[in-house]
Amino acid sequence: MSSEESLVRRAIEGDQLAFTQLYDEHFDKIYRYIYFRVGNQAEAEDLTQEVFFKALGAIGSYKWRSTPFAAWLFRIAHNQVIDYFRRQMRQKTVTLDEEIAVNGIDPVDVAERELEIQEVTEALAQISEAQRETFSLRFVAGLSIAEVAKTLGKSEGAVKALQHNATMAIRKIILEKGNG
């Protein structure tokens, strides 16, 4: 039995320290994935907390099937992001970027970073859902090819092909936009 499997079993049995350790091990990856998808720090933090709240509530129904616990968490995160966008479509709101005002961050740096993120996000919108999900899990969440394969239920070769095709398509879209 792997250490993660043991940890998950203890969390299922109600061991709060085990769940806390799972939280600590996976929080950053889940947060980066969600932040990349929604592009808003406060929303990403809230959604990440919701993911772990839902995971805590549903941990008893988790079944170990040689799939990493992270795959289960990323499925919850994926569903949270979908729900978030559905809510956004129903209620269009204008948000104030409090990060600049509160933290004294250089607006030029923030604008440049947001422009880069916007370029990649716009390019991601133009590729297939499978490529977009693979790209997000690999480069935003920082999962390995094996972890992405298990999360998506695909072979490692398929994930490598999706990753390659996604990065080439994104590069081409951004370069064409810059030259157009």
Task: Give the topology.
Elements: H1 3-12, H2 16-38, H3 41-58, H4 69-90, H5 98-103, H6 107-124, H7 129-140, H8 145-152, H9 156-179
Please, could you describe this protein's structure?
By secondary structure, the protein is mostly helical. It has 2 domains: 1-95, RNA polymerase sigma factor, region 2, helix turn helix motif (Rna Polymerase Sigma Factor, Chain: A); 105-180, Winged helix-like DNA-binding domain superfamily/Winged helix DNA-binding domain (Arc Repressor Mutant, subunit A), CATH 1.10.10.10. The chain contains 9 helices and no strands. Helix 2 (16-38) runs antiparallel to helix 3 (41-58) and helix 3 (41-58) crosses helix 4 (69-90). The longest helix is centred in the last third of the chain and has 24 residues, at 156-179.
Keyword list:
single chain, 180 residues, mainly alpha, Rna Polymerase Sigma Factor, Chain: A, Arc Repressor Mutant, subunit A, globular
Helix percent band: over 70%
Q: How many structurally independent domains?
A: 2
Fourth CATH level, the homologous superfamily of the largest domain = RNA polymerase sigma factor, region 2, helix turn helix motif
Average pLDDT reading: 82
Apparent shape:
globular
CATH class of the largest domain: Mainly Alpha
CA(first)-CA(last) distance: 55 Å
Would you tell me which CATH topology of the largest domain applies? Rna Polymerase Sigma Factor, Chain: A
pLDDT < 50 runs, ≥5 residues: none
How would a textbook summarize the main sheet? none
Cα-atom Rg, whole angstroms?
Answer: 18 Å
Structural class: mainly alpha
Strand content: under 5%
Treating each run of at least 4 consecutive H or I residues as one helix, how many helices?
9
Following the backbone from N to C, one meets helices and strands in this order, namely HHHHHHHHH
The number of E-state strands comes to: 0
